[in-house]
Each structure stands twice: as structure tokens, then as C-alpha cells.
Amino acid sequence: MRDERSKLVMKKDTLADLPQLNIPEGYSLRSFQSGDVTEWEHVIRISFAREIAFGDKIGFQPPFLPEKILFLCYQGLAVATAVAWEKEDRDINCGYLHMVGALPGHSGKGLGYTIALAALHRMRDEGKQAALLETDDFRLPAIAIYLRLGFVPLFMEDGHSGRWEKVFNQLMS
């Protein structure tokens, strides 16, 4: 059953302090190419444990720019993805880290961190100065990565304080 609560929001105030991007040995980084819809949907389906149509989240959303959709690949197959997105209703100097996922068969290799960092580098290269993201309470491994990358929680609604407290307690246990 899907959690229908509002998303938790995190922000990284500056992209000037990004660490160097190091791709793990045996993996390669590339942007979206023609025919990647199925691979993107596979990585996201496994990562989010539900069907998410590429067209609904990325392909039909302006601006669709293939270079903003990144993949880490192993032996030619996509095993992690993240999108260096923009939200039309947001500050043009602030990027939006979107749809970060990695296949569990490759866990423990830092792929979630690497692909999220690659998307932040893309944003910085495009002139973005900060980044936002939205996440769910149960995505604890992803939240740990975002914290490691320097994102901090934003308290957008009254209930967010308690939800963040619960998340931090779970991360500490």
C-alpha cells in the first residue's frame, strides 16, 4: 500500500562544495539514450517497489532533456539512475534531484551515492547553485545518502518535524 502522506523535502544550499565524482571500477556513467525507457522503468520499479511509468515522471514532463537522465551501467546494463531535473515552479538557480534508484544486486558499492552525486555535478555544470529533493519516510538508505551529500531537511508542514524525528531515530538504530 502506498504512503499517501506528503513528501519529505531536503535541500542542499550550495553545489560549490561537491566532492570529486569517482565511478566505481567496472561501472560507467552515461546519459539517457533512445531505447532506455525500459531500463529506467526496471531500475525504478525495483528501487521503489512499484510500477512508475517513465512518461508520467520524466518523458511527458517539460523540460525533457536526455542529458539530465543519468545511468550507472555494469556490463552495458543500467543498474542505477538519477535525474538532474528542474521544476518549473522553482527558483531557476536550484536544481531538483529526482528519481534516484539502484538495483539491490549492486548494493554496497556506493552506487546510490555515486549516481546522486553525478546528478548534482550535472546541475552545477548547468549553473545551478543549490538543489532540492523530495523523498518518502521509508526510503532510509536514500535519506542516509542525501544527508551524506549535505542535504538537510526542510520542515514544509506541521507534521514534518515529527516525521523527520522518526526517520533520524530509525537511521540511528
Features:
5 helices, alpha+beta, Aminopeptidase
Describe the model.
The longest helix has 15 residues. The chain has a single domain, classed as Aminopeptidase (3-Layer(aba) Sandwich). The chain has 173 residues and is of the alpha+beta class. The protein is built from five helices and seven strands; from the N terminus they run E-E-H-H-E-E-E-H-E-H-E-H.
User: What's the rounded overall pLDDT mean?
Assistant: 91
Count of all domains: 1
Strand tally = 7
Q: Globular, elongated, flat, extended or rod-shaped: what is the shape?
A: globular
The fold-level CATH name is: Aminopeptidase
**Full CATH superfamily name:** Gcn5-related N-acetyltransferase (GNAT)
Q: What's the arrangement of strands in the largest beta sheet?
A: 2-3-4-5-6-1-7
Q: Can you name the CATH architecture?
A: 3-Layer(aba) Sandwich
Topology pattern, helix = H, strand = E: EEHHEEEHEHEH
Q: What summary fits the major beta sheet?
A: 7 strands, mixed
Distance between the termini: 25 Å
Rg is 15 Å
Percent of residues in β-strands: 15-25%
* Tally of contiguous helical segments: 5
**Assigned CATH class:** Alpha Beta
Low-confidence parts, pLDDT < 50 over ≥5 residues? none
